[in-house]
Amino acid sequence: MNQEFDRPVRPTLEAVAARAGVSRATVSRVVNNSPTVDATLRDAVLQAVAELGYVPNQAARSLVTARTDTYTLVLTESAGRFFSDDSYFPALVQGVSQQLEESGKELVLQMVTSERSPGRIRERAAGRRADGVMVASVLGADPLTRTLARLGVPIVVNGRPRGPLSVPYVDVANTDGARLAVRHLVRQGRRRIATIAGSQSIAGGIDRLAGYGYEMKDAGLPPLAAIGDFTGESGESAMRHLLDADPGVDAVFAASDLMALGALRTLRRAGRRVPDDVALIGFDDTAAARHAQPPLTTVHQPIVDIGRTMARQIIRQAAGERIEPSVVLPAALMIRESA
After folding, report:
1. Residue-wise burial string across 83-118, b where 16 or more C-beta atoms lie within 10 A, e elsewhere
2. Whole-model pTM?
3. Of 33, 169, 175, 293, which has the fewest beta carbons less than 10 angstroms from its beta carbon?
């Protein structure tokens, strides 16, 4: 005796629309996470989706819309830097991942680990295997970013790009943050204030050094700078240089927490007390800064929020929306025991 298997009927958009009492177009917008749907209608659709067990047909959607609901995050830093004690990039990835997950999108993480990496990234983007690309830590006039922009791929970068490259970006108010730090030191009565600047091939490093310079000029104080590369080792070396150049330095603003912590190690070896002899301020507000001895006064930049904002911007851009050329999030000074 032959028995026929009755395949369960898959709920359709029309069935969800009928259950929710809305149009098929409204259901489609809710399923695709459009922000234009009224909250009451959205709740009704989501309830109908849950009751019917509706699951979007991802393959069919990709065929119709030519979209994959996948987004690539490219890290131009080395794997060693990403997996070091620098918590900036993990926090950035966390923010991007959280926002994409909430929006029903997938994240593909790609790292530039060899000379072949840019080619593979370009090939993936040109083949539209992702709806958009986010690039973190653009070093100067990055050729990969230029190529992706020429391909017409939706793209958002972390940090203001240098030079004539015009792509949407998300950043923190670097200049304002540096000014907050130096102003705090001036108000404490510090007069021989030095800075350990970040790499001058990166806009963030340039902007933080500029903010230091502006505030020193306003205070009528002579500047004293050493250049690092945002790492702890460079902070140690730069602090040695500053002590050699001016043994009477009584305050230091470092353009990253890692450089500030490196400077702290050098100061201890030199017998200088923080903050009694030398006040010290960093930039980033990482966990390492909070747990330092003494806890580090630092400029907070909302790293997770930067990642989330990058993800929101790339989703909007991939959907055909006109997005802002730049989104700059505010910086804030976190006052602790080191200054």
Report:
1. eeebbbbebbbebbbebbeeeebebeebbbeeeeeb
2. 0.76
3. 293
